[in-house]
Amino acid sequence: MVRSPFAEDAGPASDVFVTLGMLAEERGTDSAGLALLGAWPGLGGWPSLGGPAGGCRVVRGRGRFAEIWRPAYVPELDRSPVAIGHTRWATQGSPLEPRNASPMAVRDLVATHNGDIDAADLRSRFALPPASGTTDSEPIFQLLAGCKGPSEVTAVLEAVIGRVALAWVHRDRPTEVHLARGALSPLTVAVDTDQNIYWASNPRWFRDAERHTRARFSSVVMLREGTYAKIGMEPRPGRRDRPEVLATAKFLPTARHTDMDPRVWTGFTDDDREVDRAGLLHRAVHRPDGTSDLITVA
User: Hey, which of 52-61, 168-177, 237-246 has the most confident mean pLDDT?
Assistant: First the structure.
């Protein structure tokens, strides 16, 4: 979530964030976590949270999001302009290892990854430092941490082979969120009537959130494969603007032919799944020599 500074009541957006975390359990219960970041320019900082410098608290652990979340976090969540949540189904990296849970803090990034990628391929092509955990997510974050702009970001994203949807924040720019959908792993962005911006895997969750919270959504859009977006607020002296899309870029994602799996759309309605499948466009690596073809999956 990227919170609008103009909402009269922080409660509805916070309720949506927690609701999305609970709903996301259908896509993974091995571990879960949340990160609360930042402070709006000119509005003062957080109270002391006992966490690292820069206004960031990361809480994560084994099990369901409902087991990680605590009502005691509500005051901090209400003041956080950016909040990131994650639930994990462990495809690579033991779910018993706390360092493999997300959101992950890698260099200056706090980040999440939905999917499964060829991490060995990335490490063979790039000089990366040793990882602290054993997931396939950490190499992506190590590369993205060094990116200076959209062209460098998309170069990294085009180097990734596998299923990938990402969200990340640089801790020195905590009111800017980067979102990217590569091959297959779904990513939906929604805006409510207070101009809070959210993202999640499944568009159905936003319809469910409307039934269980006071929030109402003016827009719910599934991002197409190969989409990168930076959202947040442009700092302007003396002004507080609503969150907006600050930059976008397109890239061509690559998947292994084995990545096409019905579990990509776990929890989707039939209609949402077919709409998303009809728009898929990625390269598929399917030959022993590693070459690829451009395919459209419908």
Answer: 168-177
Q: Is residue 130 over pLDDT 80?
A: yes
Residue 294, φ and ψ in degrees, nearest 5: -85, 125
254 closest CA partner among 224, 274, 284:
284
- CA separation for the pair 138, 105 (Å, rounded): 9
Kindly report the CATH number that applies to the domain delimited by 11-253.
3.60.20.10
Q: Which two tokens stand for residue 109?
A: 């990034």
For residue 192, what is the enclosing H or E element?
A: strand 188-192
Cα distance between residue 221 and residue 231, in whole Å: 15
pLDDT of residue 291: 55
Q: What token pair was written down for 80?
A: 């956080």
Cα 129 to Cα 148: distance, rounded to the nearest angstrom: 19
In what order do the strands lie in the sheet containing 292-297? 254-256, 280-285, 292-297
pTM of the model: 0.90
Express each pLDDT in 20-38 by its tens digit.
999 999 999 999 999 999 7
Task: Decide: 230 and 178 in contact? Cβ < 8 Å.
Answer: yes
How many CB atoms within 10 Å of residue 241? 14
Identify the three-state secondary structure at position 265. helix
Domain spans of the chain? 11-253
CA–CA distance, 44 with 91 (Å, rounded to integer): 40
